[in-house]
Amino acid sequence: MEQIAFKMQLLPGHAAEYKRRHDEISSELCTLLRDAGISDYSIFLDEETNILFAVLRRRDGHRTDELPHAEVMQRWWHSMADIMVVQADLAPVQRGLVPVFHME
């Protein structure tokens, strides 16, 4: 099991809407993520900077590289593009974070 962390950028003034959309996340999208090998996925918001910090675990043999091609993921990205910093294909801009400490 691999743990990864990354950050994304929320546009100012959209914290409540971002949370609302995640509260209503489709079971279809959650199933897609699980089927790709993702588990224990959390996103945190730094309210001072609007930076979103995400951490997830993915199993060996994960298929996360297939997610951008899934129609469900495309719909999700489209629905979130108006409140986040995104790339041309509407995927959120993600910056990987370097692990420096972990305690179990």
Structure, explained:
- There is one protein chain.
- With 104 residues, the chain is an alpha+beta fold.
Largest sheet: 4 strands, antiparallel
Q: For the record, give the distance between the C-alpha atoms at the N and C termini, rounded to a whole number.
A: 14 Å
Give helix % range. 25-40%
Q: What share of residues are in beta strands?
A: 25-35%
Low-confidence stretches: none
Radius of gyration over C-alpha positions, nearest whole angstrom? 14 Å
| Average of per-residue pLDDT values | 95
Helix run count: 3
Shape: globular
What order do the strands of the largest sheet run in, or round the barrel if closed? 2-3-1-4
- Secondary structure class reads alpha+beta
What is the chain-wise order of helices and strands?
A: EHHEEHE
Strands, count: 4
